[in-house]
From TrEMBL:
Ranges of biased composition (kind: Basic and acidic residues): 10-26, 39-48
Protein name, as recorded: TTF-type domain-containing protein
Native organism taxonomy: Eukaryota, Viridiplantae, Streptophyta, Embryophyta, Tracheophyta
Region annotated Disordered, chain positions: 1-62
Record InterPro entries: Znf_TTF
Organism whose genome encodes this protein: Lactuca sativa (Garden lettuce)
Superkingdom of the source species: Eukaryota
Domain TTF-type: 112-209
SMART domains, sorted: ZnF_TTF (SM00597)
Amino acid sequence: MGTMKTIDSFFKRKNDDEEPHNENQHNKRHKASTSESQPQEHENKQENDIFEATQSNPNKVDLKNLERDPAKRKQMWEYPINLREQVRRTYMTLGPFQIHLQEYNAKGSKKHPRRFQYSWFNILPNWLEYSPTTHASYCFICYVFNDKPSVCHGYDAFTVKGFYNWKKVNDGKNCAFLKHLGCSQHRNVVTFAENLMNQATHVENITMKQNEAQMLKNRLQLKASIDTVRWLTF
């Protein structure tokens, strides 16, 4: 009669040499699952970053840190329409970017190099700008009131590209600066700027008059109150 098998005999213990093998398999599966989860986590992070960027308020501009360099700042038409007036007024308060350098970058041939002259700012103080990035000049007024890309030939030289053909500056009637002053688009934005400043002055004057009227009214009310108190005390 054979030996009776117990229930434990049907569940044989695995050999000791098989246990490391199973452990290695487990580690491999763990590493594989970890390596597969890393790209997924990276994709999730990117999606979250994109979501946060889209959720950030696009209707806010840091007016205290607007770019001054004409070659680096955003074009006015790139700002949301509802923010352009704030940006425009801030730039008008700051004025044109007129940097003073010991030596401006030379253009032209080596025999006849030409440079931007700081004294030109004194001649054209209200609109002439210079960028140390592109070593070119720009029109501040045209930038501030340029709400759309210009289709006029050569106009973007003073708003987007920058002007640096210094040979054409001191050229009498053909002076590039004088030609820009005479172009219709520049004259239009100058008129618009003057109207805007006059409007601001007008509003300020109205506010001052309203404040004066309110002060007078307050004084009359105070005087009436004092007279009433005096009358009641007798």
